[in-house]
């Protein structure tokens, strides 16, 4: 065969059936030297050709061992890669946590942020008027409140509070299972400590980053504070809706009482509220709030925080939110306190209590009377707003109403609205004239007058001829006061008004006599106080004392005597004229029987403003009505609606009080007589006799032929 190969006659083996020789036959036939590869293949065959070859899919032989090895190899690989993946996940999670932890301040530098200070504003009797500040209520210690109040929060928000370390794995697992079953977020796994951490340091966003930081901070809080300290911090920081931060603010907001006085039912309602303050607010959704409170009561009883009898009582008599009455006028007084507080104590660093001069009874009475009057007559008379200021003669503010309804308008018309006072400004002109040597019996002509084109007219459009200053004052004659300001000069009148306490800019022109320069109700009341206190200067004040929560006196008002601004003889003449307004002039319908009273009405052009300002030896009160847009009213005068409000308020304020005289008394002049119809009457050139304050002035009726002269002379 080798010779054939060498000669090029090699024969290739055939593998088809036509050759008659199989591949195996050929292999056996070829010598070892010619085909070593085929020799190895033949030697490796496990069976002779005559035996059948086993199917690879059969269960015999070594196939089972190979499958077992493959199975073990697969499980091992799966375990290996699971461990690798878990390790990388752990590394990634650790890096994620480390990154967000690095965004926090260093742990050794962490401190609980100071709670924004609260200013508790108290009435003169010590009752709470309002809270001011970002929180809506003062800080309260856990020892001040009943024990069931903090336990209500533990029962519904974190029942394992005293057992966990800031993070509760059991609670998280329970919440996760509940949420998966409900296919939603029905429960949260955050502990009270985590909630506190969020409130103290973080935002309200729901992200994984925030949750990680929350958990880290919760661990820090647990390491730094005791459980009771954490709970106290929580109770003072959690938000209850309606601007109330902390349980004290919430108790005052919803139940008008301190957290120290809440019942079990009220405590349960407060605890249930924090889950969703807007949705569960008892003043908005009382039914939802009560259902949530029932869950809290049940949880408290289940955990042994209250007895079953106490729980039954709380469920039987649920908490009720008292209906708020009134227009919230105390907030006008509270706002004014905040306006002036900085002047006395500077920046507020911690919680303080401010004792004011506000009398709650007078405040409530003034609000009710003003609101009722505007409700009854406002629409008919086109009057939408009003203000009332009432002072003690020394300047202490007893009542301050800055508008009809604080919830609708927080603009304080009593202290910030500059309005024309009309004829209520005339006393400053008359005071200046008397200080220049005139008396109430000085005569001036009530007749048409023209001053550089300005021609003031009387309200009645009529003229009385020669009249005394007292008559002109009582009947508010415009022509007479226009002549007076020309005599004494507008600048002298401005000095007089400023001396008595008017601080608003005043224009030195003749029309100033009719109150064309704008002032505030508080200014006018303070200026009139000098007529009620014996002629002393008055600076209105509302703050008596300021104390810190520890009881330290931060500020205490001292009695201030700024000295006299009206001389005694002048004061008695002015009060005689003021009293004439109340006994026979524009204020006669609202005079207080048995009291020495002075007052003056004021009406501006086109009926845009109407005033009545009056006083006794006990109170000085100003009433203003009008519209914020300066639109005209329907012929409302100072002697009308404002005088009516003033009279009702002053009558209520003086009910049961012992009458006191006005300091300085009334002016006594030397009477002269002339004879008419055989009877003596007072002469225009002599001082008018002063009658007791409890009766009107009695005049001898002149004969018919003399009546017109005396009516012109004495104002009818």
Key attributes of the depicted protein:
five-stranded antiparallel sheet; alpha+beta; disordered C terminus; five-stranded mixed sheet; 716 residues; 42% helix; single chain
Short description:
The N terminus and C terminus are likely disordered. By secondary structure, the protein is an alpha+beta fold. The termini are far apart.
Please outline the helices and strands.
Blueprint lengths: L1 H5 L16 H7 L6 H9 L18 H40 L16 E4 L5 E5 L15 H10 L11 H14 L9 H10 L6 H17 L2 H11 L9 H9 L8 H10 L3 H4 L5 H17 L5 H9 L13 H16 L6 E5 L3 H22 L3 E7 L5 E5 L24 H10 L7 E4 L18 E4 H6 L3 H11 L1 H11 L20 H12 L10 E6 L4 E4 L11 H17 L13 E6 L5 E7 L4 E7 L14 H13 L19 E4 L2 E4 L24 H8 L2
Parallel strand pairs: 1-3
Antiparallel strand pairs: 1-2, 3-8, 4-5, 4-12, 6-7, 8-9, 10-11, 11-12, 13-14
Helix pairs in contact: 4-8, 5-11, 5-13, 7-8, 7-9, 11-13, 13-14, 16-23, 17-19, 17-20, 17-22, 20-21
């Amino acid at each position: 065969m080798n010779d054939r190969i060498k000669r090029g006659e090699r024969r290739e083996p055939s593998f088809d059936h036509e050759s008659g020789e199989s591949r195996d036959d050929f292999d056996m036939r070829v010598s070892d030297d010619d085909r070593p590869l085929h020799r190895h293949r033949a030697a490796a065959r496990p069976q002779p050709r005559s035996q059948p070859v086993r199917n690879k899919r059969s269960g015999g032989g070594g196939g089972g061992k190979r499958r077992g090895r493959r199975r073990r190899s697969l499980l091992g690989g799966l375990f290996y890669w699971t461990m690798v993946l878990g390790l990388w996940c752990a590394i990634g999670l650790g890096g994620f946590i480390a990154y967000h932890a690095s965004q926090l301040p260093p742990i050794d530098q962490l401190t609980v942020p100071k709670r924004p200070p609260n200013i508790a504003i108290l009435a003169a009797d010590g009752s709470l008027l309002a809270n001011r500040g970002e929180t809506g209520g003062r800080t309260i210690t856990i020892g001040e409140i009943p024990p069931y109040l903090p336990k209500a929060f533990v029962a519904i928000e974190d029942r394992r509070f005293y057992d966990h370390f800031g993070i509760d794995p059991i609670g998280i697992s329970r919440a996760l299972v509940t949420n998966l079953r409900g296919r939603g977020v029905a429960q949260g796994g955050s502990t009270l400590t985590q909630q506190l951490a969020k409130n103290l340091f973080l935002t309200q966003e729901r992200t994984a980053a925030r949750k990680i930081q929350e958990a880290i901070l919760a661990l820090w809080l647990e390491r730094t504070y005791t459980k009771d300290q954490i709970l106290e911090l929580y109770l003072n920081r959690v938000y209850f809706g309606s601007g109330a931060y902390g349980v004290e603010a919430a108790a005052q907001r919803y139940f008008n009482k301190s957290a120290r006085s809440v019942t079990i039912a009220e405590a349960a309602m407060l605890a249930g509220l924090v889950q969703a303050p807007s949705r569960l607010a008892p003043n908005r959704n009382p039914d939802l709030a009560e259902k949530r409170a029932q869950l809290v009561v049940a949880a408290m009883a289940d955990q042994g925080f209250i007895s079953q009898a106490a729980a039954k009582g709380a469920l039987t008599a649920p908490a009720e939110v008292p209906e708020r009455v009134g227009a919230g006028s105390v907030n006008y007084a509270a706002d004014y306190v905040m306006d002036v507080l900085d002047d006395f104590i500077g920046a507020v660093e911690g919680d303080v209590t401010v004792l004011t001069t506000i009398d709650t009874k007078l405040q409530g009475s003034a609000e009710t009377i003003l609101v009722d009057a505007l409700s009854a007559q406002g629409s008919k008379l086109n009057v939408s707003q009003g203000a009332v200021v009432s002072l003690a003669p020394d300047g202490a503010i007893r009542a301050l109403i800055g508008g009809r309804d604080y919830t609708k308008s927080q603009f304080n018309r009593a202290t910030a609205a500059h309005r024309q006072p009309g004829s209520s400004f005339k006393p400053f002109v008359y005071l200046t004239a008397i200080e220049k040597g005139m008396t109430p019996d000085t005569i001036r002509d009530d007749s048409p007058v023209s001053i550089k084109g300005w021609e003031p007219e009387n309200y009645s459009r009529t003229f009385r001829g020669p009249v005394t200053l007292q008559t002109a004052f009582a009947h508010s004659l415009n022509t007479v006061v226009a002549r007076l300001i020309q005599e004494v000069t507008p600048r002298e009148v401005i000095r007089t008004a400023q001396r008595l306490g008017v601080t608003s800019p005043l224009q030195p022109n003749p029309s100033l006599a009719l109150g064309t320069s704008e002032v505030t109700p508080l200014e006018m009341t303070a200026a009139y106080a000098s007529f009620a206190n014996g002629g002393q200067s008055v600076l209105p004040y509302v703050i008596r004392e300021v104390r810190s929560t520890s009881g330290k006196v931060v500020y205490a008002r001292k009695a201030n005597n700024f000295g006299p601004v009206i001389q005694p003889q002048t004061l008695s003449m002015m009060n005689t004229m003021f009293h004439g307004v109340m006994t026979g002039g524009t204020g006669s319908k609202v005079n207080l029987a048995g009291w020495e009273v002075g007052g003056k009405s004021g009406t501006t052009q086109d009926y845009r403003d109407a005033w009545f300002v009056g006083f006794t030896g006990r109170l000085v009160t100003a009433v203003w009505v009008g519209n914020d847009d300066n639109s005209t009213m329907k012929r409302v005068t100072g002697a009308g609606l404002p005088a009516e409000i003033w009279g009702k308020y002053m009558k209520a304020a003086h009910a049961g009080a012992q009458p006191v005289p006005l300091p300085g008394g009334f002016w006594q002049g030397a009477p002269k007589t002339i004879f008419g119809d055989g009877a003596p009457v007072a002469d225009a050139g002599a001082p008018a006799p002063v009658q007791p304050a409890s009766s009107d002035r009695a005049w001898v009726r002149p004969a018919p032929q003399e009546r017109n002269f005396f009516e012109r002379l004495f104002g009818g």
